[in-house]
Design goal:
By secondary structure, this protein is mainly α. The chain contains six helices and two strands, in the order αααββααα.
Length: 144
């Protein structure tokens, strides 16, 4: 399974938004700059996330974005579905000889069930926590 660029950028931007929106809303330009994503492309991503009810926006000169609910309530499956529709593996079209079609369907269905299980269990809150545990920023460095 390969995540689309839209999904990868969306996940990065949401992790950024989650960790930076604790004190208020965050501008799209600042998220785009920190993550090296085109602001125009990020606008498209955030429009889809807003339609899905994952984020909300504040308009105006001091406007920005914030998460619509607690990050622990937003699943990765929900995010991927908002950005790309489906993330399941599609079975390939085979000549129906009975056995190979049945085996393929069983394998693909099992893998899709496993993806569902993993992506519905993983939350944005978990991704943010993981990022914080493993990211060392320049602000954390001490010099003598």
């Amino acid at each position: 399974m390969i995540l689309s660029r839209k999904s990868r950028y969306g996940l990065r931007a949401l992790i950024d938004l989650g960790k930076n929106s604790e004190c208020g809303h965050v501008s799209l330009a600042s998220i785009a700059e920190r993550n090296h994503i085109s602001a125009q492309y990020l606008e498209q991503i955030f429009a889809a996330l807003r339609r899905a009810g994952i984020i909300r926006s504040v308009k105006g000169a001091q406007g920005g974005y914030f998460l619509a609910k607690d990050p622990s309530e937003i699943t990765v499956a929900e995010i991927l579905h908002a950005l790309d529709g489906a993330y399941h593996i599609e079975p390939e079209k085979l000549q129906d000889d009975g056995i190979s079609q049945t085996v393929q369907t069983c394998v693909i269905d099992r893998l899709n069930e496993a993806f569902d299980s993993i992506l519905e269990e993983e939350t944005l809150g978990g991704l943010i926590a993981h990022y914080r545990e493993h990211h060392v920023s320049a602000d954390d460095m001490y010099y003598i």
